[in-house]
């Protein structure tokens, strides 16, 4: 069988760390990077007699998420205990939601790159999202055969977001994860920092012969902490499962880890080792009741969501879905774009989009800068776009001006582009007399090209245009150069 | 002086005929004299007690303080006390010093009560005889060959032996009422959620409730008034204002409807207990109360339901005792799993292990619905029975235990027989209702018999008032053991 005879089924479980000040069941801070165990209070280390108290801020963030993805907010949800022993799990159980989660259903809209330069739309349904506490960390290095325990992370609030198994390629899985990442950052419930573990993905992957109804046996790839690793891990896993089955083997349900050094997945534990977690409702916590007034209040505080803004970009500014999606990848990018359009004028919205997604994005990417730290401000970019629109500069010169803006050659003011155009004499030459003079000089110095053109070589014309532009240091209006040159040679 | 009522002691303190330091000294002396025989205390905090008594005297001298200021008291060793050993009757915590005070401890400290020590108990509050303590059994002051009841047996024995006038306890399935009954004192477990569980080491979270032991209903009312109120650190703590439980003490009994569950008066109660209970009920009728028959048809299911729910919660609550962060850790072990196994095998006693095993079993995949879910359904039925009964009566009365105190060692090899002794008490915890036990006479071998009074939700003040009126007209509560 070839690769196309197999159908891939992927579901994702994503743990997002919620951006509360304190832990989900205690008042200890959750700030990243503190010395081990200084952010663990009596509740977090599970001293005898301590009790959990739910952090309303965590619930509020779950409600925000539910509303943002069009899910149902459960009027009543229940915290349960997931029992297992591990040194970094101080109580011997994790408080999580099991039978009754706080968020049910919902959808994520994505644009999946098709690998041929285009993209297609897809909707992924969510199964649920539930609140739970994180465990601490076991530190196996530096302790000479012993294990160190850091409980700073114990009790950190998490929202685990579970998708339906509806993705059929690593590209779709990555597009889903990116869209989800965009949403949780957009509604400000998670900082999305994957290196610090604020956004951790587990992928359930299975394959089945195309046309088969039943799912194949899945393996779960744990803790994918970058989109690139996710793509690599899933691709490797798919091929591994197909190879195994084609060789007559059978996939065993298992949890696997991705080794980014070798690019391979390897089994961590099999189904036989699976725990019986003995879930039951936590008697220390009352059921979580969320009334409609609470939901309405949170709804009123939500920012305009990316899907709505994307639609607005398409309708009001005539952007393509691709551009609109890219410009609503984060609130910061969309704000930068909106600020640029506001200053440059709606008529230039498409030009603004090209610049934000083009030069700005490329330069920021190269410099590893966030758009909020862009050396070229939205107003400065708008100033530049306006000069393109009114023909003060050509597109080619505009790139030069952008470089100068980036290097702060025009200062910090909004009219920095004008300053640069002025002081560096980059204004487009539209005076026909001046252009004619340049053309005459070029024609005189390039008799050979003139003869070639007259002999029927079209290419020679372009060479002459190029020479004229060069002679004008790029400032001559290209359309005028074309026109006059044609006349002169005609 | 500490034999007197709290009211009398408080008056004497204000009249300066006695000082808090003198009271503490008297209490400490009685503990020193009696404890080797009774084994009611695991820890005596002499220095802490004298310092607290001094502070209480200063407060009284300044004209401040309340009804508990300067009163010696003992805490069941299930309550965390900052800087003082908190063992929970277990080897697992035999070295554990809490860095914080339980909410109840904080409240009673604030009220000016003087803690003299921590009382012995069945390990992790699992037991009905105090024989399951790592620190040896507590003995009944009325007869040291008999058990004091459990799991708050140390507190009950300490109050009965007049070592302290009042003591805290916890009641998960009868652990205040049963030892109060067997030791001839008064003990009350309030409505679930009335007393904060913060700092009270959990046995079965949905059933555990702190309460008070005293020699009279009036003393219990004064003490419980200082212990109740909302605590934001306990999510199951009720959002109610602190209540004064002395409010109903003077209320006459005329017209009081006492419900008698036919199921409690059927077979199972020993003759001596029945005689004392009937006599007490006759006294209530004499005082103007009327008795009506009520029915609790599902009460017989309380024990099986309790012995599913309580162990289930316990198996999870006790998981934190893993030898990693505090408590007992085996001296020698191989890998991580071996450390867990050895530390817990060494740290826990037989009854605790039994309940962890039962609890783990009933929560296991495939058994959860048949046991845990079913037990929760029974729990609702039992609560509904009580609701129906309270439509016909104001309080429910009956025996606290089927027999008087049994001999030490008599039931220790038969856990099921031991569990069946909780027949009259566990239903109350499953429903979350308030209930008390007060002395109602003596049975076989001159051992005390207690009458149980069960109230509707938040009926503590009424319950204590009813018992107080009884005690105004009887002297069973004033009898004291010879020891």
From TrEMBL, chain A:
GO biological process, one term: translation
Keyword ATP-binding attached: yes
Statement: the UniProt record of this protein carries the keyword Iron: no
Catalytic activity: L-glutamyl-tRNA(Gln) + L-glutamine + ATP + H2O = L-glutaminyl-tRNA(Gln) + L-glutamate + ADP + phosphate + H(+); L-aspartyl-tRNA(Asn) + L-glutamine + ATP + H2O = L-asparaginyl-tRNA(Asn) + L-glutamate + ADP + phosphate + 2 H(+)
UniProt GO molecular function: ATP binding; glutaminyl-tRNA synthase (glutamine-hydrolyzing) activity; transferase activity
InterPro entries referenced in this protein's UniProt entry, alphabetically: Asn/Gln-tRNA_amidoTrfase_suB/E, Asn/Gln-tRNA_Trfase_suB/E_cat, Asn/Gln_amidotransferase, Asn/Gln_tRNA_amidoTrase-B-like, GatB, GatB_Yqey_C_2, Gln-tRNA_amidoTrfase_suB_CS, Gln_synth/guanido_kin_cat_dom
Key words, A-Z: ATP-binding, Ligase, Nucleotide-binding, Protein biosynthesis, Transferase
PROSITE patterns: GATB
Entry's EC annotation: 6.3.5.-
Domain Asn/Gln amidotransferase: residue ranges: 335-489
Pfam families xref list: GatB_N, GatB_Yqey
Membership in a protein family: Belongs to the GatB/GatE family. GatB subfamily.
Subunit-structure text: Heterotrimer of A, B and C subunits.
NCBIfam families: gatB, PRK05477.1-2, PRK05477.1-4, PRK05477.1-5
Purpose: Allows the formation of correctly charged Asn-tRNA(Asn) or Gln-tRNA(Gln) through the transamidation of misacylated Asp-tRNA(Asn) or Glu-tRNA(Gln) in organisms which lack either or both of asparaginyl-tRNA or glutaminyl-tRNA synthetases. The reaction takes place in the presence of glutamine and ATP through an activated phospho-Asp-tRNA(Asn) or phospho-Glu-tRNA(Gln).
The protein's name in its UniProt record: Aspartyl/glutamyl-tRNA(Asn/Gln) amidotransferase subunit B
Source organism of this protein record: Zoogloea oleivorans
Native organism taxonomy: Bacteria, Pseudomonadati, Pseudomonadota, Betaproteobacteria, Rhodocyclales
Automatic annotation (TrEMBL), chain B:
Entry annotated with the keyword Calcium: no
Segments forming domain Amidase: 23-464
Catalytic activity: L-glutamyl-tRNA(Gln) + L-glutamine + ATP + H2O = L-glutaminyl-tRNA(Gln) + L-glutamate + ADP + phosphate + H(+)
Domain of life of the native organism: Bacteria
EC number: 6.3.5.7
Pfam family, one: Amidase
Enzyme class per UniProt: ligase
GO cellular component: glutamyl-tRNA(Gln) amidotransferase complex
Keywords: ATP-binding, Ligase, Nucleotide-binding, Protein biosynthesis, Transferase
Matching InterPro entries: Amidase (IPR000120), Amidase_CS (IPR020556), Amidase_dom (IPR023631), AS_sf (IPR036928), GatA (IPR004412)
Active site: 76 (charge relay system), 151 (charge relay system), 175 (acyl-ester intermediate)
A molecular function GO annotation: glutaminyl-tRNA synthase (glutamine-hydrolyzing) activity
GO BP, one annotated term: translation
Subunit (UniProt): Heterotrimer of A, B and C subunits.
Role summary: Allows the formation of correctly charged Gln-tRNA(Gln) through the transamidation of misacylated Glu-tRNA(Gln) in organisms which lack glutaminyl-tRNA synthetase. The reaction takes place in the presence of glutamine and ATP through an activated gamma-phospho-Glu-tRNA(Gln).
Family: Belongs to the amidase family. GatA subfamily.
Name assigned to this protein: Glutamyl-tRNA(Gln) amidotransferase subunit A
Organism expressing this protein natively: Zoogloea oleivorans
